[in-house]
Structure of Complement C1s subcomponent:
Amino acid sequence: MRWLPLYHALCFSLWKALAHTVELSNMFGQIQSPGYPDTYPSDSRVTWNITVPEGFRIKLYFMHFNLESSYLCEYDFVKVETEDQLLAIFCGSENTDTEHTPGQEMVLSPGSFMSITFQSDFSDEERFTGFDAHYMAVDVDECTEREDEELSCDHYCHNYIGGYYCSCRFGYILHTDNRTCRVECSDNLFTQRTGVITSPDFPSPYPKSSECFYAIRLEEGFMISLQFEDIFDIEDHPEVPCPYDYIKIIAGPKVLGPFCGEKSPEPINTQTHNVSIRFRSDNSGENRGWKLSYKATGKECPGLQPPAQGKIEPLQAKYFFKDQVLVSCDTGYKVLKDNVEMDTFQIECLKDGSWSNEIPICKIADCGAPAELEHGLVTFSTRNNLTTYKSEIRYSCQQPYYKMYNNITGIYTCSAQGVWMNEVLGRSQPTCLPGTPLSPLLQRLLFKALGPQEFWLLMEGEVEGMML
Ligand SMILES: *[C@@H]1O[C@H](CO)[C@@H](O)[C@H](O)[C@H]1NC(C)=O
Ligand SMILES: *[C@@H]1O[C@H](CO)[C@@H](O)[C@H](O)[C@H]1NC(C)=O
Ligand SMILES: *[C@@H]1O[C@H](CO)[C@@H](O)[C@H](O)[C@H]1NC(C)=O
Ligand SMILES: *[C@@H]1O[C@H](CO)[C@@H](O)[C@H](O)[C@H]1NC(C)=O
Ligand SMILES: *[C@@H]1O[C@H](CO)[C@@H](O)[C@H](O)[C@H]1NC(C)=O
């Protein structure tokens, strides 16, 4: 039935000569085979290239379809394609195992371009009426239809006719790529001696397109050590080291990292008081991030011995830079530092690992020599005439003419504060007042001898005389 191959080739070039392309850019339109509704001519080839605006696709459907049938539509056909993809090829007037008619089927372009080619060969055994097709631009719901992960929105997607846009959850900022949601995380300062730092939202996946910066700034003398804990999950690449997301640690002049992947770095002893952490994420990937705890220690100071009759607080096995110790003494003792007595004394472990001062000694409180008493005298009750804490003295009045006023014992004890104290008078001295010089025995004898009247006259005179 088919003629010579040579003829075939000739015809092919003829088709080419007859072939023409129709450019269409309306939002809808009609396409018909040449001569429709009459029989289409042999050896014809027409291409309709339809272009609609970005954000639209093209829907094509047929109201009438009647072409010559051939094995795999070799001879007459309608072919629907994009720049690089065959969407459908139709021929015949009914579906067979090998040939396809459009029927009620619609052809949808993946993008905003569709090319439709009609071709007939040089001979048709019957009369075929061709086709009548319609197309229209339809909106692409980018929010639900985009399969390309790169193009859909990171958080929220909003479709509108002919396009879409993205927005972000509260607390996030839309990146200039208009697609991913980043966070502002470039200004984190840590000044405590211990702390925990994590990637944003940890352990939920960290935000995309973000540049985070964390600074640990401590006083000179501290050394910061870092330890990653828990999950470590940063997007990586099997061959290239950390091309997308990474964490870098800047410890003084040293830069550690970049680190990525699923294996966390070993604990890091930075040997510096100034550590910066940089964390970067690109615009894709769902990784959970990282968590690290840091701790700063200073140099160790030598161990401390509490002074005799004293204590240090807090009492620790080890002391480090910035630790402070308070020295105090037992009751009755005073801290003596540079010949100055005080209740407590504080020393501090310095950055070079030495103590700011030596431990002072505890000196027993001393009341000193007791003050002399007018018309009286003092005797020491404690051995060696001691005047220190808990020592005892006794004041008495010059006998027999003076008596201690107030009926007190005259006993004073050296207090913890270093002052002589009496039970009744406190720190005040007793007073010696003139009293009768006569002994009770003599008084009784005089009473008997003089009788009451004379006796009292005598006694009053005696007393008045002494007072004057
Ligand atoms: C029409 O589309 C086809 C398929 O993409 C292409 O090969 C051809 O160059 C286009 N024709 C014109 C005139 O743009
Ligand atoms: C993002 O959107 C703005 C305004 O809609 C536009 O000017 C800009 O070109 C867009 N940027 C990208 C990378 O698409
Ligand atoms: C800490 O390190 C950062 C970055 O290395 C540097 O810019 C900064 O001046 C340093 N600060 C101190 C107090 O050393
Ligand atoms: C104690 O003091 C008394 C006077 O108050 C004095 O006579 C005596 O020698 C002193 N004893 C000692 C051991 O110092
Ligand atoms: C003096 O004190 C002693 C003991 O404290 C007591 O027994 C005595 O009655 C007191 N004498 C007078 C006159 O208060």
Observations:
- Residues 380, 384-385 surround 2-acetamido-2-deoxy-beta-D-glucopyranose (ligand 4) (CB under 6 Å).
